[in-house]
Amino acid sequence: VQGLPLAAKRRADNPRMVRWAGTDTVLGGLADGGEDRFTLLPHHLCTRLVQDTTGSSIAYAEVRDLARSREVRVAADNYVVAAGAVLTPQLLWASRIRPPALGRYLTEHPTTFCQVTLLQSLIGQATTSEHFSSQLLAYRERFPDDELPIPDDDPDPNVWIPVTEGRPWHAQINRDSFHYGDIPPHVDGRLIVDLRWFGLVDPRPENRVFFSDRYTDVHDMPQPTFDFAYSAEDGARLHRMMAEMIRAALAIGGFLPGAEPRFPIPGLPLHIAGTVRMGEDPQTSVVNTDSRVWGYGNLYLGGNGVIPTGTASNPTLTSIAMALKAADRMIAGG
Length: 334
Ligand SMILES: Cc1cc2nc3c(=O)[nH]c(=O)nc-3n(C[C@H](O)[C@H](O)[C@H](O)COP(=O)(O)OP(=O)(O)OC[C@H]3O[C@@H](n4cnc5c(N)ncnc54)[C@H](O)[C@@H]3O)c2cc1C
Fold this sequence. Notes:
By secondary structure, this protein is of the alpha+beta class. The protein has 6 helices and 15 strands.
Protein backbone atom coordinates (compact mmCIF):
# COMPACT_ATOMS: atom_id res chain seq x y z
CA VAL A 1 0.00 0.00 0.00
CA GLN A 2 1.46 3.35 -1.05
CA GLY A 3 0.54 7.02 -1.32
CA LEU A 4 -1.24 7.60 -4.67
CA PRO A 5 0.65 10.10 -6.86
CA LEU A 6 -1.65 13.07 -7.54
CA ALA A 7 -1.32 15.90 -10.05
CA ALA A 8 -1.97 18.44 -7.31
CA LYS A 9 0.03 20.87 -5.16
CA ARG A 10 -0.90 22.31 -1.81
CA ARG A 11 -1.51 26.05 -2.16
CA ALA A 12 1.05 28.26 -0.44
CA ASP A 13 -1.54 31.01 0.23
CA ASN A 14 -4.05 28.58 1.74
CA PRO A 15 -2.57 25.20 2.74
CA ARG A 16 -6.07 23.81 3.37
CA MET A 17 -6.58 23.88 -0.39
CA VAL A 18 -4.81 22.20 -3.29
CA ARG A 19 -4.44 23.27 -6.88
CA TRP A 20 -5.08 20.48 -9.36
CA ALA A 21 -3.10 20.35 -12.60
CA GLY A 22 -5.11 21.15 -15.72
CA THR A 23 -4.55 22.12 -19.32
CA ASP A 24 -3.42 25.53 -18.10
CA THR A 25 -0.65 23.87 -16.03
CA VAL A 26 0.63 22.14 -19.16
CA LEU A 27 0.38 25.21 -21.39
CA GLY A 28 1.72 27.70 -18.84
CA GLY A 29 1.95 31.22 -20.30
CA LEU A 30 0.84 29.94 -23.70
CA ALA A 31 -2.71 29.65 -22.39
CA ASP A 32 -2.86 33.44 -22.01
CA GLY A 33 -1.84 34.17 -25.62
CA GLY A 34 0.78 36.65 -26.71
CA GLU A 35 3.04 33.97 -28.17
CA ASP A 36 3.46 34.34 -31.96
CA ARG A 37 3.88 30.67 -32.71
CA PHE A 38 0.91 29.44 -30.73
CA THR A 39 -2.77 30.08 -31.30
CA LEU A 40 -5.57 28.53 -29.31
CA LEU A 41 -8.98 28.54 -31.01
CA PRO A 42 -11.63 28.09 -28.32
CA HIS A 43 -15.10 26.85 -29.29
CA HIS A 44 -13.86 25.47 -32.58
CA LEU A 45 -14.73 21.99 -33.83
CA CYS A 46 -12.59 20.15 -36.35
CA THR A 47 -15.09 18.55 -38.74
CA ARG A 48 -12.81 17.00 -41.37
CA LEU A 49 -9.22 16.38 -42.36
CA VAL A 50 -8.90 16.85 -46.10
CA GLN A 51 -6.37 14.68 -47.95
CA ASP A 52 -4.17 15.94 -50.75
CA THR A 53 -4.25 14.34 -54.21
CA THR A 54 -1.73 11.64 -53.22
CA GLY A 55 -4.12 10.34 -50.58
CA SER A 56 -1.21 9.84 -48.19
CA SER A 57 -1.01 13.28 -46.66
CA ILE A 58 -3.39 15.77 -45.03
CA ALA A 59 -3.64 19.06 -46.97
CA TYR A 60 -5.72 21.00 -44.46
CA ALA A 61 -8.22 20.68 -41.62
CA GLU A 62 -11.74 22.03 -41.84
CA VAL A 63 -12.70 23.68 -38.58
CA ARG A 64 -16.03 25.16 -37.55
CA ASP A 65 -16.05 28.28 -35.38
CA LEU A 66 -19.05 27.38 -33.22
CA ALA A 67 -19.50 30.88 -31.80
CA ARG A 68 -19.61 32.66 -35.18
CA SER A 69 -20.93 29.78 -37.31
CA ARG A 70 -18.19 30.06 -39.90
CA GLU A 71 -15.72 27.62 -41.41
CA VAL A 72 -11.96 27.99 -41.03
CA ARG A 73 -9.19 26.12 -42.84
CA VAL A 74 -6.04 25.22 -40.95
CA ALA A 75 -2.97 24.13 -42.92
CA ALA A 76 0.13 22.71 -41.23
CA ASP A 77 3.16 20.48 -41.78
CA ASN A 78 1.89 17.95 -39.27
CA TYR A 79 -1.59 17.29 -37.87
CA VAL A 80 -2.22 15.81 -34.43
CA VAL A 81 -5.69 14.64 -33.44
CA ALA A 82 -6.08 14.22 -29.68
CA ALA A 83 -9.85 14.46 -29.29
CA GLY A 84 -10.40 11.66 -26.77
CA ALA A 85 -10.81 7.93 -27.34
CA VAL A 86 -14.28 8.22 -28.92
CA LEU A 87 -14.12 11.48 -30.86
CA THR A 88 -10.65 10.88 -32.36
CA PRO A 89 -11.91 7.88 -34.38
CA GLN A 90 -15.07 9.90 -35.07
CA LEU A 91 -13.05 12.61 -36.82
CA LEU A 92 -11.10 10.02 -38.81
CA TRP A 93 -14.35 8.35 -39.85
CA ALA A 94 -15.83 11.72 -40.86
CA SER A 95 -12.67 12.34 -42.93
CA ARG A 96 -13.09 8.96 -44.65
CA ILE A 97 -9.87 7.71 -43.08
CA ARG A 98 -11.14 4.27 -42.14
CA PRO A 99 -8.42 1.70 -41.44
CA PRO A 100 -9.73 -1.76 -40.48
CA ALA A 101 -8.85 -1.38 -36.79
CA LEU A 102 -10.56 2.02 -36.39
CA GLY A 103 -12.77 1.95 -33.27
CA ARG A 104 -11.98 -1.72 -32.59
CA TYR A 105 -10.05 -3.34 -29.71
CA LEU A 106 -11.86 -0.98 -27.33
CA THR A 107 -10.82 -1.57 -23.72
CA GLU A 108 -11.95 -0.10 -20.44
CA HIS A 109 -11.33 -0.90 -16.82
CA PRO A 110 -13.98 -3.12 -15.35
CA THR A 111 -14.43 -1.70 -11.88
CA THR A 112 -15.52 -2.93 -8.48
CA PHE A 113 -16.60 -0.43 -5.87
CA CYS A 114 -17.75 -0.21 -2.28
CA GLN A 115 -17.57 2.17 0.68
CA VAL A 116 -16.76 1.21 4.25
CA THR A 117 -17.01 2.92 7.61
CA LEU A 118 -13.66 2.42 9.30
CA LEU A 119 -13.26 0.02 12.22
CA GLN A 120 -13.25 1.70 15.62
CA SER A 121 -10.00 -0.11 16.47
CA LEU A 122 -8.30 1.53 13.45
CA ILE A 123 -9.60 4.98 14.36
CA GLY A 124 -8.31 4.39 17.89
CA GLN A 125 -4.81 3.73 16.56
CA ALA A 126 -4.62 7.34 15.37
CA THR A 127 -4.73 8.42 19.01
CA THR A 128 -1.75 6.31 20.00
CA SER A 129 0.34 6.62 16.82
CA GLU A 130 3.45 8.80 17.15
CA HIS A 131 3.05 9.67 13.48
CA PHE A 132 -0.04 11.78 14.17
CA SER A 133 0.64 12.95 17.73
CA SER A 134 1.72 16.58 17.15
CA GLN A 135 -1.08 17.28 14.62
CA LEU A 136 -3.60 15.66 16.90
CA LEU A 137 -2.46 17.64 19.94
CA ALA A 138 -2.81 20.92 18.04
CA TYR A 139 -6.24 19.86 16.78
CA ARG A 140 -7.44 18.80 20.24
CA GLU A 141 -6.47 22.23 21.61
CA ARG A 142 -8.63 23.91 18.98
CA PHE A 143 -11.54 21.45 19.13
CA PRO A 144 -11.52 19.66 22.51
CA ASP A 145 -15.10 18.38 22.02
CA ASP A 146 -14.44 16.54 18.77
CA GLU A 147 -14.54 12.84 19.61
CA LEU A 148 -12.74 11.77 16.43
CA PRO A 149 -8.93 11.80 16.39
CA ILE A 150 -8.86 13.01 12.77
CA PRO A 151 -8.47 16.76 12.14
CA ASP A 152 -11.39 17.90 10.01
CA ASP A 153 -9.04 19.73 7.64
CA ASP A 154 -6.89 16.64 7.12
CA PRO A 155 -6.46 15.93 3.38
CA ASP A 156 -8.71 13.16 2.08
CA PRO A 157 -6.95 9.78 2.05
CA ASN A 158 -5.49 8.66 -1.28
CA VAL A 159 -3.63 5.36 -1.32
CA TRP A 160 -3.16 2.65 -3.90
CA ILE A 161 -1.93 -0.89 -4.31
CA PRO A 162 -0.22 -1.13 -7.70
CA VAL A 163 -0.67 -3.96 -10.19
CA THR A 164 1.64 -6.90 -9.58
CA GLU A 165 2.32 -10.12 -11.44
CA GLY A 166 -0.63 -12.47 -10.99
CA ARG A 167 -2.75 -9.66 -9.55
CA PRO A 168 -3.79 -7.69 -12.66
CA TRP A 169 -5.75 -4.94 -11.01
CA HIS A 170 -5.10 -1.52 -9.56
CA ALA A 171 -6.56 -0.80 -6.13
CA GLN A 172 -7.40 2.70 -4.90
CA ILE A 173 -8.63 3.61 -1.46
CA ASN A 174 -9.70 7.19 -1.19
CA ARG A 175 -12.47 9.55 -0.22
CA ASP A 176 -13.72 10.79 -3.54
CA SER A 177 -16.99 12.29 -4.46
CA PHE A 178 -17.75 10.53 -7.70
CA HIS A 179 -21.48 10.60 -8.11
CA TYR A 180 -21.60 6.93 -7.18
CA GLY A 181 -19.73 7.55 -3.92
CA ASP A 182 -21.48 10.32 -2.05
CA ILE A 183 -21.33 10.51 1.71
CA PRO A 184 -24.76 10.22 3.34
CA PRO A 185 -25.62 13.40 5.28
CA HIS A 186 -25.87 11.63 8.65
CA VAL A 187 -22.39 10.03 8.61
CA ASP A 188 -19.16 11.88 9.40
CA GLY A 189 -17.11 11.74 6.17
CA ARG A 190 -13.88 11.16 8.10
CA LEU A 191 -15.13 7.68 8.97
CA ILE A 192 -15.68 6.60 5.38
CA VAL A 193 -13.36 5.46 2.64
CA ASP A 194 -14.11 4.36 -0.93
CA LEU A 195 -12.55 1.23 -2.36
CA ARG A 196 -12.24 1.27 -6.14
CA TRP A 197 -10.50 -1.62 -7.88
CA PHE A 198 -9.72 -1.21 -11.61
CA GLY A 199 -9.21 -4.40 -13.61
CA LEU A 200 -8.29 -5.01 -17.21
CA VAL A 201 -9.94 -6.56 -20.24
CA ASP A 202 -8.17 -8.22 -23.12
CA PRO A 203 -8.32 -6.16 -26.34
CA ARG A 204 -10.61 -7.92 -28.83
CA PRO A 205 -11.69 -6.63 -32.27
CA GLU A 206 -15.38 -7.26 -31.56
CA ASN A 207 -15.35 -4.72 -28.71
CA ARG A 208 -15.69 -1.48 -30.61
CA VAL A 209 -17.14 1.96 -31.18
CA PHE A 210 -18.49 2.37 -34.69
CA PHE A 211 -19.90 5.35 -36.54
CA SER A 212 -22.92 6.03 -38.67
CA ASP A 213 -22.89 7.63 -42.12
CA ARG A 214 -26.56 8.40 -41.63
CA TYR A 215 -27.15 9.51 -38.04
CA THR A 216 -25.26 12.36 -36.45
CA ASP A 217 -24.56 13.75 -32.98
CA VAL A 218 -25.47 17.29 -31.86
CA HIS A 219 -22.54 18.69 -33.85
CA ASP A 220 -23.54 16.92 -37.08
CA MET A 221 -20.65 14.51 -36.64
CA PRO A 222 -21.12 10.74 -37.20
CA GLN A 223 -23.03 9.17 -34.32
CA PRO A 224 -21.00 6.71 -32.20
CA THR A 225 -22.47 3.35 -31.12
CA PHE A 226 -20.76 0.84 -28.81
CA ASP A 227 -20.50 -2.96 -28.93
CA PHE A 228 -18.83 -4.19 -25.76
CA ALA A 229 -18.87 -7.44 -23.79
CA TYR A 230 -16.57 -9.21 -21.34
CA SER A 231 -14.93 -12.46 -22.45
CA ALA A 232 -15.00 -15.50 -20.13
CA GLU A 233 -11.39 -14.68 -19.12
CA ASP A 234 -12.32 -11.04 -18.41
CA GLY A 235 -15.22 -12.24 -16.26
CA ALA A 236 -13.07 -14.70 -14.29
CA ARG A 237 -10.48 -11.97 -13.58
CA LEU A 238 -13.24 -9.61 -12.51
CA HIS A 239 -14.60 -12.21 -10.09
CA ARG A 240 -11.15 -12.67 -8.49
CA MET A 241 -10.77 -8.90 -8.25
CA MET A 242 -14.13 -8.53 -6.48
CA ALA A 243 -13.13 -11.20 -3.96
CA GLU A 244 -9.91 -9.36 -3.18
CA MET A 245 -11.66 -6.02 -2.77
CA ILE A 246 -14.17 -7.52 -0.34
CA ARG A 247 -11.32 -9.04 1.68
CA ALA A 248 -9.57 -5.65 1.85
CA ALA A 249 -12.82 -3.88 2.75
CA LEU A 250 -13.57 -6.18 5.65
CA ALA A 251 -10.03 -5.78 6.95
CA ILE A 252 -10.58 -2.06 7.48
CA GLY A 253 -14.28 -1.62 8.08
CA GLY A 254 -17.90 -2.52 7.53
CA PHE A 255 -19.92 -1.81 4.40
CA LEU A 256 -21.71 1.51 4.37
CA PRO A 257 -25.40 0.68 3.86
CA GLY A 258 -26.30 1.46 0.25
CA ALA A 259 -22.67 1.27 -0.88
CA GLU A 260 -22.09 -2.48 -0.64
CA PRO A 261 -19.74 -4.12 -3.20
CA ARG A 262 -20.94 -3.68 -6.77
CA PHE A 263 -19.86 -3.58 -10.39
CA PRO A 264 -20.47 -0.04 -11.71
CA ILE A 265 -21.89 -0.04 -15.23
CA PRO A 266 -19.43 -0.09 -18.17
CA GLY A 267 -18.54 3.43 -19.22
CA LEU A 268 -18.45 4.76 -15.69
CA PRO A 269 -14.65 4.43 -15.19
CA LEU A 270 -14.19 6.99 -18.03
CA HIS A 271 -11.00 5.29 -19.19
CA ILE A 272 -11.86 4.03 -22.67
CA ALA A 273 -8.75 3.10 -24.67
CA GLY A 274 -7.60 1.18 -27.71
CA THR A 275 -9.92 2.71 -30.34
CA VAL A 276 -7.03 4.05 -32.46
CA ARG A 277 -4.46 1.65 -31.12
CA MET A 278 -0.73 1.63 -31.69
CA GLY A 279 0.88 -1.41 -33.27
CA GLU A 280 3.17 -2.90 -35.85
CA ASP A 281 0.49 -4.28 -38.18
CA PRO A 282 -1.80 -1.93 -40.18
CA GLN A 283 -4.50 -4.61 -40.11
CA THR A 284 -4.77 -4.62 -36.32
CA SER A 285 -3.68 -1.09 -35.42
CA VAL A 286 -4.36 2.49 -36.55
CA VAL A 287 -1.03 4.15 -35.76
CA ASN A 288 2.57 2.95 -35.84
CA THR A 289 4.85 3.04 -32.79
CA ASP A 290 5.43 6.78 -33.35
CA SER A 291 1.65 7.44 -33.20
CA ARG A 292 1.56 8.18 -36.95
CA VAL A 293 -1.51 6.94 -38.82
CA TRP A 294 -0.62 4.08 -41.17
CA GLY A 295 -0.47 5.31 -44.77
CA TYR A 296 -0.25 9.02 -43.88
CA GLY A 297 3.00 10.97 -43.68
CA ASN A 298 1.80 13.87 -41.57
CA LEU A 299 -1.09 12.65 -39.40
CA TYR A 300 -0.51 11.72 -35.75
CA LEU A 301 -2.94 10.69 -33.01
CA GLY A 302 -2.73 11.18 -29.25
CA GLY A 303 -4.64 10.21 -26.13
CA ASN A 304 -5.90 7.04 -24.49
CA GLY A 305 -7.24 5.64 -27.77
CA VAL A 306 -3.64 4.92 -28.78
CA ILE A 307 -2.99 2.53 -25.83
CA PRO A 308 -2.94 -0.92 -27.47
CA THR A 309 -3.13 -3.30 -24.52
CA GLY A 310 -5.53 -3.85 -21.66
CA THR A 311 -4.43 -1.70 -18.74
CA ALA A 312 -5.57 -1.60 -15.15
CA SER A 313 -4.08 1.73 -14.08
CA ASN A 314 -5.31 5.24 -14.73
CA PRO A 315 -4.32 5.92 -18.35
CA THR A 316 -3.21 9.54 -18.64
CA LEU A 317 0.46 9.12 -17.77
CA THR A 318 0.79 6.28 -20.32
CA SER A 319 -0.79 8.45 -23.04
CA ILE A 320 1.54 11.32 -22.18
CA ALA A 321 4.55 9.01 -22.52
CA MET A 322 3.37 7.95 -25.99
CA ALA A 323 2.69 11.57 -26.97
CA LEU A 324 6.19 12.62 -25.94
CA LYS A 325 7.68 9.89 -28.13
CA ALA A 326 5.54 11.04 -31.08
CA ALA A 327 6.53 14.68 -30.49
CA ASP A 328 10.23 13.76 -30.47
CA ARG A 329 9.78 11.96 -33.77
CA MET A 330 7.94 14.92 -35.32
CA ILE A 331 10.64 17.35 -34.18
CA ALA A 332 13.28 15.04 -35.62
CA GLY A 333 11.46 15.26 -38.96
CA GLY A 334 9.30 12.15 -39.03
C1 LIG B 1 -14.13 12.37 -13.85
C2 LIG B 1 -12.85 11.87 -14.47
C3 LIG B 1 -11.81 11.48 -13.64
C4 LIG B 1 -10.61 11.03 -14.20
N1 LIG B 1 -9.60 10.70 -13.36
C5 LIG B 1 -8.43 10.29 -13.87
C6 LIG B 1 -7.34 9.98 -13.02
O1 LIG B 1 -7.44 10.05 -11.79
N2 LIG B 1 -6.18 9.57 -13.57
C7 LIG B 1 -6.02 9.46 -14.92
O2 LIG B 1 -4.93 9.09 -15.38
N3 LIG B 1 -7.05 9.76 -15.76
C8 LIG B 1 -8.22 10.17 -15.27
N4 LIG B 1 -9.27 10.47 -16.11
C9 LIG B 1 -9.05 10.33 -17.55
C10 LIG B 1 -8.40 11.60 -18.10
O3 LIG B 1 -9.29 12.67 -17.95
C11 LIG B 1 -8.07 11.34 -19.58
O4 LIG B 1 -7.11 10.29 -19.63
C12 LIG B 1 -7.44 12.58 -20.23
O5 LIG B 1 -8.28 13.70 -20.07
C13 LIG B 1 -7.23 12.32 -21.69
O6 LIG B 1 -6.66 13.47 -22.26
P1 LIG B 1 -6.81 13.81 -23.78
O7 LIG B 1 -6.23 15.17 -23.97
O8 LIG B 1 -6.30 12.69 -24.61
O9 LIG B 1 -8.38 13.84 -24.05
P2 LIG B 1 -9.52 14.83 -23.45
O10 LIG B 1 -9.09 15.40 -22.13
O11 LIG B 1 -10.79 14.06 -23.55
O12 LIG B 1 -9.51 16.02 -24.47
C14 LIG B 1 -10.02 15.89 -25.78
C15 LIG B 1 -10.46 17.27 -26.21
O13 LIG B 1 -10.78 17.24 -27.60
C16 LIG B 1 -11.94 18.01 -27.81
N5 LIG B 1 -12.55 17.55 -29.07
C17 LIG B 1 -13.19 16.38 -29.34
N6 LIG B 1 -13.56 16.34 -30.63
C18 LIG B 1 -13.13 17.48 -31.19
C19 LIG B 1 -13.19 18.00 -32.52
N7 LIG B 1 -13.77 17.32 -33.53
N8 LIG B 1 -12.67 19.24 -32.74
C20 LIG B 1 -12.07 19.94 -31.75
N9 LIG B 1 -11.97 19.48 -30.47
C21 LIG B 1 -12.48 18.27 -30.22
C22 LIG B 1 -12.79 17.76 -26.57
O14 LIG B 1 -13.73 18.78 -26.41
C23 LIG B 1 -11.72 17.76 -25.49
O15 LIG B 1 -11.48 19.04 -25.00
C24 LIG B 1 -10.48 10.94 -15.60
C25 LIG B 1 -11.53 11.34 -16.44
C26 LIG B 1 -12.70 11.80 -15.88
C27 LIG B 1 -13.81 12.27 -16.81
